[in-house]
Amino acid sequence: MSRHFDRMRYHIADDPEAGGRPRPPGAFTGIAPGLESVAPRFTSNEAAARFYLDHKLAEEPETAGFRAALATESPARVPDLTLRSSRQTPASGTTLVRFDQTHAQIPIFGSDVLVELDQSRELVAMDARLAEVSGAPDVPTLDAPAAVAAVAAATGTAIEGAGSMPPALTYYLDDAGTWHLAWHLHGLPAVLPEARPGPGHTGHGMEDPSPRELYPRVDYLVDAQDGAILFYFGVTPTVDVPTKLRGVDENGVHVDRIWGDKLGSGFALRDRLRNIVTFDLALGDLAENPQLTDPVQVNDPDLGEKFKAAVSAHANATKVFDFYRGVLSRDSVDDQGMALTSVINCIFSPHGPGPEWKNAAWFDNRMWYGQMRNPAGVLVSTARFLDVIGHELTHGVIDTSSGLVYRNQPGALNESFADILGITISNWYEAETPENVAGWNWELGRGWRPTGAGLRSLSDPVAFGQPAHMRDFVHTTADNGGVHINSGIPNKAAHLLFTATTAQGTPVLDARDWVVLLYLAMVRLSRLALFTDVPVALRDVAKVYLAGSPKQLDPVLAAIESAYSAVGIE
To answer: Which stretches make up the FTP domain (predicted)?
Structure first.
């Protein structure tokens, strides 16, 4: 679908007139140097972004998409673009302003406009996907309940209500280049037969199913004239002074970096500074939508060995939070201080009566942990896998940033970035030299299988049944278009980045720099991004991130080119 959109990209590093420096507004209005006092001044990031968009789009070749975006009686604004978000990225010192394109005040699905501004609201970069809607009606024939009924009939599912959000009209461009007016139905608990997991399929490869799979939430675009399903994709997933607590986790490690609340007669696993809280379901059934009231409570600040699962969940959530905040400058999952809620000792009745449930899942904005038996037959919590927790929580990060659609290539990128961040976070705390990848464990969930094996590998996807090159890309309707299969291709490219060396054999960048670049690229992607969009985004952020280190830039750009070419992503 995205191939039918007109594309406009701009970056100061590629602009000979900019000289590698952000362009001030006066540069777009012909104001001579020294007369900046009469240049436009902006009261908001949105106003600045619209100003630059108006001028840059006007410079582009005449195309339908750009014509549509600039159709206005007031050349000072771009009214057919509505603001989606404006978010600072401290790691690069810039602000990302995102817009959606509309037609007749109805959003265009798949459109995306990103404007990057520096701290002075000067232009750094721009990436726009725009289109001109033609041949589609502006008024629906079917109402929203009829669209929901069409999904219910196609899936054989009784659907109560209209989804997780109110239905909304959108314009959708299909692969044949035909425009449709469609109802966007959010988070329906219904899956088409061809998209249902086959026998034994458990998504991430964990041994037992997740509630995300058995209680799915799927977005549908339904033609507002005839009720045909056009497209579908899965959707996932004042400060008090804390008290320092300690205890032994599921791996037998003495942990002394967890925090809780001081109660009148004990302590609770609630870290108000980081907004992290841990509950114990006591082998209750998460399928029954349990109400969580009181977090885990203990009498002594030393939890000892009696609360291993709780210590693991609380400590690992803390590590993920601290990594995102300390390394990537992100404030929790949604970058706005969202609570990290963990629930241990869960069973999931659609799988069985328990007590085993071999899964850990980000579902309903919470982490739910099951348990499995170790070789000695003792139940141990899945909360002990830091990399799996980092992976699952990163799905929440993606949902609240780029919003990569959970299907086909965008969905595989969603899974890939979750793998990359999960493995990075685990090594950050567990490798002997975190910023030197020579001793890293590239296997996600090592020890999950009874054999001691893990779930996937960044260094060797093929060993876990995944392709490592585009020539082996799997075309399938299962698993949301193979999101857990084809993620091996961008995973392999990421491993090649982390391990890239110069001609002298020294690392091109250390792990901290690579993960910052990958994160910054991830949050820049559009919802329908393809594999080929990742190296483009990486090059853009590298040019800003390394602007103060020009000697490093050429080797980094060469490493990006080499890594993605090696896996067939051109």
So the answer is: 80-126
Instruction: Dump pLDDT digits (tens) for 243-259.
Output: 889 999 999 999 987 99
pLDDT of residue 544: 87
Q: What is the pLDDT of residues 150-204, one digit of tens each?
A: 999 999 888 887 776 789 999 999 988 899 999 999 988 888 887 776 655 555 5
Residues of the chain scoring pLDDT < 50: 1, 35-36, 38, 72-79, 237-240
- Asked if 468 contacts 489 with a C-beta cutoff of 8 angstroms, the reply is yes
* Separation CA 245–CA 270 (nearest Å): 11
Contacts of 87 (CB under 8 A, 6+ apart): 95, 96, 335, 401, 523
How far apart are the C-alpha atoms of 422 and 410, rounded to whole Å? 18
CA gap 249, 233 in Å, rounded: 37
Cβ contact 319:386 at 8 Å: yes
pLDDT value, residue 34: 52
Backbone angles phi and psi of 169, in degrees to 5: -75, 145
Give the pLDDT confidence of 205-217 residue by residue, as tens digits: 666 666 656 557 8
Question: Backbone phi, then psi, for 277, in 5-degree steps?
Answer: -140, 145
Write the DSSP assignment of 25-68 as a string of letters: THHHHTPPTT-GGGS---SSHHHHHHHHHHHHHHHS---HHHHH
Task: Determine the pLDDT at residue 66.
Answer: 57
392 is catalytic: yes
Sign of dihedral through CA atoms 342, 346, 348, 349? negative
Q: One-letter amino acid identity for 84?
A: R
> Which of 21, 2, 25, 256 is CA-nearest to residue 129?
2
The 8 Å CB, 24+ separation contacts for 349-355 are 349/285, 349/287, 349/288, 350/209, 350/211, 350/214, 350/215, 350/287, 351/208, 351/209, 351/214, 352/208, 354/283, 355/283, 355/379
What is the Cα–Cα distance from 99 to 117, expressed in whole angstroms? 14
Residue of 132, 392, 415, 443 with catalytic role:
392
Q: How far are the Cα atoms of 4, 80, 86, 388 from residue 315, in angstroms, in the given order?
A: 47, 47, 32, 14
Choice among 11, 391, 395, 484 that is catalytic: 484
The whole-angstrom separation of Cα 549 and Cα 536 is 20
Q: In what order do the strands lie in the sheet with 254-263?
A: 243-248, 254-263, 266-268, 297-298
CA atoms within 13 A on the CB side of 495: 24
Contacts 24+ apart (CB under 8 A), 440-448: 440/498, 440/511, 442/495, 444/387, 444/388, 444/391, 444/419, 445/205, 445/206, 445/385, 445/387, 445/388, 447/385, 448/206, 448/207, 448/358, 448/385, 448/388
Question: Which two three-digit tokens encode residue 220?
Answer: 């549908």
Question: What is the bridge-based pairing of β-strands 254-263 and 243-248?
Answer: antiparallel
Q: Of 444, 452, 504, 8, nearest to 204 (Cα)? A: 444
User: Which pLDDT score, from 0 to 100, does residue 19 have?
Assistant: 76
DSSP bridge pairs for 139: none
